[in-house]
């Protein structure tokens, strides 16, 4: 048995944040019924065609779900959704604030007939406050949360290369739902969850927030280098390849000087004998490090760092990550079915000896509509009528 076997989640969701949360619930065994628009479905399906003709975003966050197409502008479609929610355990929606309420899909209305329902709103800024109705996309939340102010080079603020605000919101949606399920075991009642992308990403901004507390200077933008710990970041070797290294304390600094730079006297050099001094004099220290690294290949540099037990990494691209030896050695690759055939997928993080993750098919648009409607008691004739009316 998986932890969420027997739990039914109905998701009125699109794009990344909510789908990422509900996919993780599906990973743990939950039945996730994804509500999509008839025809095109979730518009994230059409972002690109890089994953065997499917969208890379959609492929990532929608396996193991059932797709039910409903046009909620039609009352019969709304009736079907309400019928599903009468017995569901969890309802997740990330429509624009107020949109669900305008359709009568409020927590108060739904919990009146299903008191055990866990109702989760996910939005950019939350269900109240002056920004409630402001449009919120990932890049915009990165900007509002101050992430762009500390990311990039001194000349150019840069976004994070993944949808980090969506991912943060999806993670807190997932964990809040798990907590609500545990709470329901104690109280027998459902609850209402309000997740804000700004607040989710804001939690992850804790270090730069406190670093700049009481008007202090915030962390500068330093590219791939660390803003306050040095040396920590990318270095070019003599073969033109970049390696990453990181020092965390004075013991490691002494080892680095002795075993990698072969200049043990640098450890006590008054310009570099404390991290804050190294940070202040990073231009001078960088010149020393790069001169030594330029006489070695990247493999030789990495070998020396490993020998000295200095943290290091290769600067991999996506193709190298696909073929990462550590993932392969740990058996982290699986495959899932899709409308376009079998596709590789990483197993969810975390290995649990008590169960295996659910890794089922990525659904086609409306693939499960008829089966779900029959389950709800609709006849073949009724389903045909709904199709003709454009409700499904």
Summary of the model, kept short:
With 392 residues, the protein is of the alpha/beta class. 39% of the residues lie in helices and 14% in strands.
Which helices and strands, and how do they pair?
Layout: E1 8-12, H1 17-27, E2 31-36, H2 56-61, E3 65-69, H3 75-85, E4 90-93, H4 99-102, H5 107-113, E5 118-123, H6 138-144, H7 147-150, H8 164-187, E6 192-196, H9 197-204, H10 206-211, E7 232-236, E8 242-246, H11 250-260, H12 275-280, H13 282-293, H14 298-307, E9 311-314, H15 318-322, H16 325-329, E10 333-336, E11 343-346, H17 369-375, H18 380-389
Parallel strand pairs: 1-2, 1-4, 2-3, 4-5, 5-6
Antiparallel strand pairs: 7-8, 8-9, 10-11
Helix pairs in contact: 1-8, 8-9
Question: What does this 3D model show about the protein?
Answer:
There is one protein chain. This protein has about 400 residues and is of the alpha/beta class. It folds into 2 domains: about 10-205 and about 330-390, Rossmann fold, CATH 3.40.50.10540; about 230-315, formyl-coa transferase, domain 3. Helices cover about 40% and strands about 15% of the residues. It contains 18 helices and 11 strands. The strands form 3 sheets. A 6-stranded parallel β-sheet has the order 3-2-1-4-5-6, sandwiched between helices. It has a 3-stranded antiparallel β-sheet with strand order 7-8-9, with helices on one face. A hairpin with a 5-residue loop joins strand 7 and strand 8. It starts with 7 loop residues before the first strand and ends with a helix.
